[in-house]
Design goal:
The complex is a heterodimer. Chain A is about 70% helix and about 0% strand. Chain A is mainly alpha-helical. Chain A is elongated. The relative contact order of chain A is 0.11. By secondary structure, chain B is of the alpha+beta class. The chains are: A mainly alpha, B alpha+beta.
Chain lengths: ~180, ~210
């Protein structure tokens, strides 16, 4: 039976490099994808995922198993880093955050998909988390709720509202593409 | 036939699309009746298709080796500094002891100094033996004008290398005949108090002085 995240964390605190490597292999890929979906920027996402692990190994790491899972802690760190990154960026006249698409956009072939990518990142934070975790990361409502730290019903309702907003954006894009992608 | 208002179908509609399943009987009937919900159904399917594309686009391979190595290096660095800080308090007394030992060595390394050779003895023993405030018959020469020992103060006898000049500085008056001979270092037992000041000296190399 493989050790839990929390067990690995305990070993990490004792200086176990193997435990850190194991936790990294287990959690970093999804953490990176999450950061990527939030930021749209590969470099930013890699930095954020790395920073989450760095914070975890610091002597003054704030993880407390009584307050939630280690996975939720890591996602929380990335989410906060993304918030800081968003705040530091300029806000457009329509109130939408201008996000640098970076390298990731080159991976998206379809214009509509690219527009959707921007729309996802411009959703209100709570809605964005719900879409990224449930629809892009394909996590269950229960998992997403634990990672975000809110009731399952809240995740579900945020997701449905977010999808309505996104569907409207997509429809609008198909009618007038240039207005949506700007 | 009424199939309810649109609001009550929205969530079920989205859930069906997310799961990739067809509408239930009642929802299907509502979609047939309601053009608006029919459009929403189509829009949700289109959205799911685009989200799938987005998911695929971002599932591309990337090299994590560099980041993994960086993390491991950081961890190793933290471990090293943590080990250092763990032993920081142990180093303080150890360093102090080393410093003190080095100071003693430097002091003893000065001309006329050598390593102490005698064990500690109690002042009562010294006094009872007449080592401090007695005459020269016991072999110890009292240091003139030295502070008297306090009651219960312990003294030690340490073996040192001295020379004539140092004895003179202590106030011990050497007979002129010996002065020239005592220019070189010689061994002496020195009685010192807790203040490390000499109280009496016995010349080991010149017992008949």
């Amino acid at each position: 039976m493989e050790p839990s995240d929390e067990e690995l964390y305990r070993r990490i605190r004792k200086g176990d490099r193997q435990a850190l490597a194991e936790l990294y292999e287990r959690r970093e890929p999804a953490l990176y994808r999450y950061a990527l979906q939030l930021s749209g920027n590969q470099a930013t996402a890699e930095e954020a995922a790395h920073e989450a692990f760095l914070q975890l190994i610091q002597a003054d790491a704030r993880f407390d198993a009584r307050r939630g899972s280690l996975q939720a802690y890591l996602y929380g760190v990335v989410r906060n880093l993304m918030r800081v990154a968003y705040r530091s960026q300029s806000v457009g006249p329509a109130g939408e955050v201008a996000v640098d698409d970076g390298v990731v956009q080159t991976l998206i072939e379809g214009e509509a998909t690219r527009a959707l990518s921007i729309a996802v990142r411009n959703l209100p934070p709570g809605y964005r988390d719900a879409v990224v975790l449930c629809d892009l990361e394909e996590r269950s409502y229960e998992d997403a709720a634990k990672l975000v730290g809110c009731p399952v019903g809240t995740i579900r309702s945020r997701l449905y509202r977010a999808r309505r907003l996104l569907a409207a954006k997509l429809r609008q894009y198909r009618l007038t593409p240039e207005k949506v992608t700007k | 036939m009424s199939t309810g208002n649109c609001g009550e179908w929205l969530d079920e509609l989205a859930e069906c699309v997310r799961r990739g399943v067809g509408p239930s009987g009642r929802l299907s009937a509502h979609l047939s009746d309601c053009a608006r919900c029919g459009e929403r159904w189509e829009a949700e399917w289109a959205l799911s298709a685009e989200l799938r594309e987005l998911r695929m686009a971002r599932a591309g391979q990337r090299s994590r080796d560099v980041w993994r190595r960086r993390l491991m290096a950081e961890f190793a660095g933290l471990e090293r500094s943590s080990s250092r800080s763990r032993f920081r308090w142990a180093w303080i007394p150890a360093s102090a002891a080393l410093l003190a030992a080095a100071s003693v060595q430097v002091w003893l390394g000065m001309p006329g100094r050598s390593v102490p050779a005698r064990i500690s003895v109690q002042s009562e023993d010294i006094a009872s033996a007449g080592l401090v405030d007695t005459d020269e018959d016991n072999g110890f020469i009292p240091v003139p004008y030295a502070l008297p020992l306090a009651t219960g103060e312990s003294v030690r006898i340490v073996r040192r290398e001295l020379n004539g000049a140092e004895l003179v500085r202590m106030g011990i008056d050497l007979p002129g005949a010996y002065a020239a001979d005592l220019a070189d270092d010689f061994e002496a037992d020195v009685v010192v108090g807790e203040d490390e000041l000499p109280r009496a000296v016995q010349l080991v190399s010149y017992p008949d002085l």
